[in-house]
DNA sequence: CACAGTCGGTCTGGTCATCGAACCATACCC
DNA sequence: GGGTATGGTTCGATGACCAGACCGACTGTG
């Protein structure tokens, strides 16, 4: 399904937001980058997205100041979320929770988010019921829940165990 | 710009959510319906969306249990948000606020949301700083802010004055 | 150095969505 | 009957998306 990009004549801030993140695949890519999936090949393995579309979206997201592209070796690039992208985390989390509520998996939640210091699952608004704060991504860990459907790719395997948001999946385990 | 609809092999709840509301125009239509714009012709006037696309989206949103379609006269239809749609309000508001923060209009906010009982502008998370609650749409009023860019259509004119969410734009004024 | 493999893309051809404009059926008003 | 409002559908052209083939730069291996 194609998704257009511009909503030219809409004076609303929602239209502005959708011009940045409303295109097909963009929010899923953003989620993956927040999950620590930062490389072209890993994003492809995890999302089953056509190469050309992924290349196009990454370029658009760099241009929109959502991603920072930097080499980790000669000719090899990594994409990291900018402050603007991190600022979207509560919305992304809210949308995911909405999907979880209205399209539940039989066995339970597909993914669990916990406040790292408190070790408490976040509520629907992304807040920590224990300490009352709304943690930034850096303080949130995520792991597969009981409703999780396994995927074959190597990236998905890494995301089953608890892992802080933003930690590159290429790096070692949970980290405390 | 087209936006596809299905993300078949993604086991994530975010993909499920995007299959409901990820298509082009869908979130803008949902916002408009929450603003009280419930008729085909009014949506068209406010969004500048091709007729065929609007008809397709409305049908999809009814099928996804986001909208309830009911006649208000012989052969005339109105679309009203379901509970599922109302449940998405905090996300919609969060995305709008994100757009406002990262694409500000020079003169200030484009649209202001206030908690009706407290008459206090909502914070970025959709909460009321006065009473500490997160009001449902029925308790929120909205009006044009200083950064508002006027549009010529008759619907936009109605949305300039304060008005509770969900109140049909065809109905009379602010209502307290 | 030749060779294979990995990575991050680009190119191509076919399909599908979107766009803008025209058309249409019903109901109402006079 | 003629005119208008409403809620669509149909059409042709353009553009987005998709799957798969191709490619250039670099790395490691012998």
Automatic annotation (TrEMBL), chains A, B:
SUPFAM superfamilies: Winged helix' DNA-binding domain. InterPro entries: HTH_HxlR, WH-like_DNA-bd_sf, WH_DNA-bd_sf. Residues 12-107 form the HTH hxlR-type domain. Pfam families: HxlR (PF01638). Residues 128-176 are annotated as: Disordered. Residues 150-170 have a biased composition (Basic and acidic residues). Gene3D superfamilies: Winged helix-like DNA-binding domain superfamily/Winged helix DNA-binding domain. Keywords: DNA-binding, Transcription, Transcription regulation. GO terms for molecular function: DNA binding. PROSITE patterns: HTH_HXLR (PS51118). Transmembrane segments: none annotated. It comes from Actinokineospora bangkokensis. This is HTH hxlR-type domain-containing protein. It comes from the Bacteria.
């Amino acid at each position: 399904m194609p998704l257009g990009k511009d909503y030219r004549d809409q004076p609303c801030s929602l239209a502005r937001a959708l011009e940045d993140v409303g295109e097909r695949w963009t929010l899923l890519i953003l989620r993956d980058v927040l999950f620590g999936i930062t490389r072209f090949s890993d994003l492809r393995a995890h999302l089953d997205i056509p190469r050309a579309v992924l290349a196009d979206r990454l370029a658009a997201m760099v241009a929109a100041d959502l991603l920072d592209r930097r080499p980790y070796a000669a000719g090899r690039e990594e994409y990291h979320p900018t402050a603007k992208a991190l600022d979207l985390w509560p919305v992304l989390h809210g949308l995911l929770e909405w999907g979880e509520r209205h399209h539940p998996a039989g066995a339970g939640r597909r993914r669990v988010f916990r406040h790292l210091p408190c070790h408490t699952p976040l509520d629907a608004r992304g807040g920590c019921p224990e300490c009352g704060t709304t943690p930034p991504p850096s303080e949130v860990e995520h792991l597969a829940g009981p409703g999780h459907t396994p995927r074959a790719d190597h990236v998905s395997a890494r995301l089953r165990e608890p892992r802080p948001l933003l930690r590159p999946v290429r790096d070692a385990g949970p980290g405390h």
